[in-house]
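Minutes, project check-in
Item: structure for the 84-residue chain
Input as provided by the requester:
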Amino acid sequence: MTMSTAPDSPYSGPVSEGSPFDRQPAGGFTVHKDRTREVVRSGITMGSALAITISWSIHHSILWAILHGFFSWLYVIYFALTRN
């Protein structure tokens, strides 16, 4: 990164060479890894919410809902395979 200013430019900050897309974001993660982590977090949240909703509609018990929310997608798949 080099410091450069043009004589008629109102900007006096650092000027870097290359495209902004060539640089990695802060933290050292690439954009692909950050996107994967975001998708995984969303999937876990959605699976838990779905499991809790199904459990509550069947059992009307907070304890069962918490237990099924912990197992999330496993319970959702079990429910889909065993319902009549």
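Outcome recorded: Residues 29-84 form one domain.
No further action items on this chain.
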